[in-house]
Amino acid sequence: MKIKLLVVLIAVFVLTGKSHGQFSFGVSPGIGLSGAHLGYKLNKKLIPYIGFQYLNAKFDYAETGEEFDNDLMQVVTYSDKNEFSGSLFMPTIGVKYFMKQKNKLQPFWTLSLTKPFVSGKLKTDGTEDPDFNATVKNIRMWGCEIGYGIEYFVDENFSIGGEFGFKYMHLKYHGTNQSDFWNPNTKSYQNTDIKNSFNLSTSPTFSRISLNYYF
User: Fold this and answer.
1) pLDDT tens digits, residue range 110-167?
2) Which of the 8 DSSP states describes residue 99?
3) Cβ atoms of residues 105 and 149 within 8 Å
4) What pLDDT, in 10s, does the model give residues 5-15?
5) Could you tell me which residues come within 8 angstroms of residue 1 by beta carbon, excluding any fewer than 6 positions away?
6) What is the pTM of this model?
7) Does residue 160 contact residue 112 with C-beta atoms inside 8 Å?
């Protein structure tokens, strides 16, 4: 709900902005996830923006060897292969607020919200695991950042920035699995639903260097 409200506010700002507004584009290179953002400079102080990060991963594991087959009563060769593929897409919306400029240096504050989307598949010997797919679909994540930084303007269209701040990420999982157990009273197996829940929150600091273009 908070993200939808901020999207509406940014849209209103852009549509009602004056003609002297500027678009801005920035990239944040680094080890791990690099990011990019596109903003609209409404005036000398305020820039609402959208950004994104993306990560794709693949993992294959194969095992071959020999084992004893009790049905055939002899040693046989076996092979197992597991394949994993997944992606993480992290769209972001936020606001950058510039403070008073001193020569070519301009300090700023940023506030942003992120809604990551996770997808993934797991295959064993070519057969897709439906339980793994259901688990991934039940993962919910969101995060926010607040930071302080300074941009050094080489000219009016290009700047180099540094930023430090705090990040909050929350991950939640809720799912239900079907199982059974032996009931000695009825001398039979009884079906049951097992509910699983998992919550994780992290609050690390972050730092980044950015290259910013204004046009």
Assistant:
1) 999 999 998 888 888 888 888 888 888 888 999 999 999 999 999 988 999 999 999 9
2) -
3) no
4) 444 444 444 44
5) none
6) 0.72
7) no
Per residue in 43-74, pLDDT tens? 889 999 999 888 888 989 899 999 888 888 89
- What counts of helices (H) and strands (E) characterise the chain? 2, 11
CA distance 8 to 52: 18
Q: Any bridge partners for residue 177, and if so which? A: 194
Report the chain's terminal Cα–Cα distance, integer Å. Answer: 32
- d(C-alpha 215, C-alpha 199), whole Å: 43
Amino acid found at 2 = K
Long-range own/partner contacts, residues 149-157 (CB < 8 A, 24 or more apart): 149/107, 149/108, 149/110, 150/105, 150/106, 150/107, 150/108, 151/105, 151/106, 151/108, 151/212, 152/104, 152/105, 153/104, 153/105, 153/106, 154/104, 156/214, 157/213, 157/214, 157/215
Closest C-alpha among 174, 52, 166, 177 to residue 117 = 52
pLDDT, position 46:
92
